[in-house]
Amino acid sequence: MGKKILSESALERMQTEYNEWLAEYKKATQKMPERLDRFSTVSDLEIKPLYTPQDIENRDFFENIGYPGFYPFTRGVQSTMYRARLWTMRMFAGLGTSEDTNQRFHYLINHGETGLSTAFDFPTLMGYDTSSPLARGECGKCGVAIDTIEDMQRLFANINLENVTTSMTINPPASIIWAMYIANAENEGYSRKKLGGTIQNDCLKEFIAQKTLMLPPEPSLRLVTDTVEFGTREVPRWNTISISGYHIREAGSTAVQELAFTIYDGITYVEEGIKRGLAVDDFAGRLSFFWNSHIDFFEEIAKMRASRRIWARLMKNRFKAKDPRSMLMRFHTQTAGCSLTAQEPYNNIIRTTTEGLAAILGGTQSLHTNSLDEVYMIPSEEAVLIALRTQQILADETGVTNVIDPLAGSYFIEALTDKMEEEANEYIRKLDELGGMVRAIERDYPQMEIADAAYHFQQQVEAGEKLIIGVNKYASERRELEFVLKIDDTIEKMQVDRTNNFKEKRDKDRYRRAMDELRRRCQGPPCWENNVMPALIEAVRAGATEQECCDLYREVFGVYTDPGTF
Amino acid sequence: MEKGRKLRILVAKPGLDGHDRGARVIARAFRDAGFEVVYTGCHQTPEQIVSTAIQEDVDIIGLSILSGAHTYSFPRIMELLKESNAQDISVIGGGIFPLEDIPKLKEIGIKEIFEPGAKLQDITDWVVANIQPRQAVALTAR
Prior knowledge:
CATH architecture of chain B: 3-Layer(aba) Sandwich
Order of helices and strands of chain B: EHEHEHEHEHH
CATH architecture of the domain at 66-95 and 200-462 in chain A: Alpha-Beta Barrel
Largest interface: A-B, 49 and 39 residues
Largest sheet of chain A: 9 strands, parallel
Strand order of the largest sheet of chain A: 5-4-3-2-1-9-8-7-6
Structural class of chain A: alpha/beta
Oligomer: heterodimer
Distance between the termini of chain A: 43 Å
Number of strands of chain B: 5
Strand content of chain B: 15-25%
Radius of gyration of chain B: 14 Å
Strand content of chain A: 5-15%
Number of domains of chain B: 1
CATH class of chain B: Alpha Beta
CATH class of the domain at 66-95 and 200-462 in chain A: Alpha Beta
Structural class of chain B: alpha/beta
CATH superfamily of chain B: Cobalamin-binding domain
Distance between the termini of chain B: 20 Å
């Protein structure tokens, strides 16, 4: 520990005056009692009435807070932060057909969005073509249906893929969808070396929370590592994993659990990359993160600040990274879908604004702000425009972007940031003891921790200990919005026909050879020579559908199904 | 809980939707309210759900869905129950539904739809008040 922030004499005076204040506070609350028996964050972390320099007295400024763009990056990953470049405004979008989603992309870009983010429908997320019997009723409902490279071409038509970065929320089939993206971009004349974007590709949090499940953990990790290895060599501007706390939080975790489980997933991916023979500094800089910004304003800011510091310390101390870029936790943020209410949906604008502001004060690199109607469905144009404008107003009107990390030095924020780090490290130690994340998942450990937290929160809501306006305070009836997006059930047949025609036209021999090569690589030991990515790029060019590649995966690697614990 | 034996409920998630927070919370709530709970996890087909319901001899199926695919899976489940002569297994749903779909779901025999914000206590109370153990089937199956 370095030099303390406060001198001994200052501390002494502070203690005396603090005691005087506390006596006064107690006296006052005899007359006018505190409004609540217990004040706590949305994650149920108890909050004191007042924080003072004493709450951070043992912390060293240089070790713990420091400067933006410098280790341990508590204050931000760049030295300039939003004074040079704002976060990327990246609205998660996907609906109906590839044409519908392309139109939405253009609409968002025309209204000032600065990065793309793709939502796929459930069959695509789970590795099924629209024609699968398991996909009945799902086509285009929660995102866009992508079966083939032709769908990918339509999805990104008339968008310059070297000028925009594209995020794709896709997990078990991430390698295949990425192969389609790369192959399509090259067909359109772009260089893979210049493509920028992110595939979510975080298989571990699927077992923990999001539940788009396909393969068991070990082969899932192998495929993730294949993409990391391929990206390192071939697509240097791509973020090959977006290590995601978002879904963990939506599943009901606390902020600390979100922080700890996600960072431990990150530890696991780094270990796998090293096992593959990659040098940590060659790939760690392309790992990115994804946080939820929930409704508890300060808790979220503290969580994001702590996340940068924890990761920087882990990368430096645990993995001996030398390149500062390996230590940077760069992250995307989405406001909390689970904080929105179906009752009085316009109130959701206020929730999203608050959460978006927390993400900005937390130093996010990109942001999705939820639309007020996302509590019912994927957003309408009217609602998504309000959500995008929310970010733009925060960026350009409120002045919050004038200064870097404005809440640093707040006794409360710094103490809460420390608390987040401490409690997350407790979980990290526990996960080490359990033998790592894969073993922990097999023991249902993170899953049950989250289920406990979700149930606890729900009970608090029902007991009126946690208040939600329109739900358990000022309760109100559901009202339909005047704009409602409906996905037409008839697009399912159109999409099935389209994919069938595409398969008819393909060169059968080239397709067969490509799939044989993919199978050979999957069956071989994990290494560069057996990396699936080059084979996948050829396979999707040769006309392989997403499901055909996934069926091959399922055949070679086996299938994982939800154990259904609660 | 009175009425002879504990009510048995199957909590099921039809389709490819992985949003299981609600399903897992409601499964616990039913367990804590004294039900026997079967939960089969995410990604169940209508066929799997109906076959589990019959094999496990449940009194009621609680379907949780947030994806919008209820337009296919709910009618299909009702159809399969009928084909299996198991219409006496009651079905309720919870999750996100466009308002206009709710009367349509009730028309095909879904007994109740619980929307976002529904209290756990209200849901379990509703089931206790409205669902009887399936006596005839219980006798033959046990």
